[in-house]
Each structure stands twice: as structure tokens, then as C-alpha cells.
Amino acid sequence: MRLIEVILDDKNLNEAVKRVKRNKGVAGVDKMIVYEIDTYFQNNKERIKKGNIGKEI
Up-side HSE of residue 36: CA atoms within 13 Å toward CB? Predict the structure, then answer.
């Protein structure tokens, strides 16, 4: 398995979201607040994964 596939694995992405929420992350350049992240990932996770799966790290 390539590194990008490990990074984009559902288990890893879900853990990353939990860590952001646990750390009460601050809005970044996208201005998304931590409480919006669940809905965002529910609606966009597959698009994000497909958009990045062919890229190399």
C-alpha cells in the first residue's frame, strides 16, 4: 500500500478528524470552524479521497 493510500484510509481520516476536534482546532485558511468538520467530511470524504489518490507524496 502506498503512503497516500494509508493517509486517505477511512480509519486514518476519522482519527484525524477526532484529533482536530479534541484539540479544538482553530479555523484555518478555509475559515471552517472545528464544529463544521463532521458535516464537511460526511459530504466530501469520497471526493477528497478520489481527488488525491493519484498523487504522490
Answer: 9
User: Rounded to an integer, what distance in angstroms lies between the CA atom of residue 7 and that of residue 1?
Assistant: 10
Give the burial string for 1-10 (b: 16+ CB within 10 Å, else e): eeeeeeebee
Average of per-residue pLDDT across 14-34 = 81
Residues across the chain: 57
Contact 20, 37 (CB under 8 A): yes
* pTM, full prediction: 0.69
55, burial (CB in 10 Å: exposed 0-12, middle 13-18, buried 19+): exposed
